[in-house]
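As the next step, I selected for study a record pairing a protein sequence with its backbone structure tokens, which the following lines show:
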Amino acid sequence: MAMRAGEVSSVELTDEAIARIERDDTAINAICVRTFDRARAAARRADRARAWGEDRPLLGIPVTVKESYDIAGLPTTWGMPSQRDHVAAEDAVQVSRLEAAGAVLLGKTNVPLMLRDIQSFNEIYGTTSNPWDHGRTAGGSSGGSAAALAAGFGALSIGSDLAGSLRTPAHFCGIYAHKPTLGLAPTRGMVAPPAPALPIDLDLAVVGPMARTAGDLTLLLDVMAGPDPLTHGVAYEVALPPSRHERLADFRVLIVEDHPLIPTGSAVRAGVHRVADALGDEGARVERRSRLLPDPADAATLYMLLMLSNAAASLPLDVYERLRTDAAALSAEDRSLDAARLRGMVLGHRDWVEANHRRELHRHGWRQLFTEFDVVVCPITPTPAFPHDHHGGLEDRRIDIDGVGYPYFDQLVWAGVATMPGLPATAIPAGRSPEGLPVGVQLIGPMFEDRTPLRLAELLERKIGGFRAP
């Protein structure tokens, strides 16, 4: 690293990042809360500490933080106008870990309302645009972080992921992101206001790192991983196993490019092929089918049930009762994802327990699959970044896949492949679309073997290239 070698100082890196934000962020709108004075003071402290011989994992590195994380004294709104004036009283556990590791916090990055969109816009902070094409979305819900990294507004960022919220923005903006194994990184202080920052074990949702290189993902994950000191941390420490392999030739990889419930667009398919060909060229074992892969249609339905039961838990009673009436009117033969989402919003406890048992069966299936394979490569969404679309409700929007429209939320099935069973997944750049837009793929690994897809990401970065600035 240039800073360790004394070739550049933290003050210089921080000033450069701030200059880029002041020059370019009017058009991109990635940084919604700026902390420049704080950052410059932290950079000066970092340079003094390094001069005294101190070295910490992120000492002096400029970073950004997703708006949804609490930072003491700064607003945390989740894009909700009603929480415009909410100010956090204490740092989220991950913010504390960043600062303990020596990071320099430049500011907070934009999100969609309640983090519930594949785009990042809200009434308080406006719309974040893709640095590659300002007419297109940067993704959501960690879209501000992905856009900031692509635009050079810092070297690292932290986000969160329930429905691809780390992976989709990385795919759309041409950067790297890692969705950790469920429960690996504590989420305390990443909570919608005005709820208290409790050490809750969330279902499906995780927090994780975003970066411009695969190696930096690993660096930041090592800072973020480990149990919350208020709960599991009383008794346990994290000890992730090493990557299964260190050479591309030794990896056993399953390629999954098609989903039974939604087509894969041609640009994304080409990205998957690019990765598959690179692996094959290096002598890796590459397969395109396996009887061990858990049923993707059942997995998608189960994912929608579990995700929407969580999302709808705080709905007002009158809204909930209307949804119950609508769900009761569904035909028993309606197995569409729209129907699964509606049923999920009114899922009773008995049915949730049954769904959770089905999830455990899927997890067991993945364990069997990972005895024969090390990583699964598949899309993140069916298309590259799409034009801004803020019209109507989420349920009314459509996603265009090679000229054909599909329900907007159906594209989440690819995110659910890893999210529903709680598996780690690394998003990597995999080339460009014919229009010049970034295309990414995800590398899904075995539970708590996060270092395996992360290592494969590093090796592929050397083989096919990685992040390239817009």
Remarks:
- Residues 43 and 454 are 29 Å apart (CA to CA).
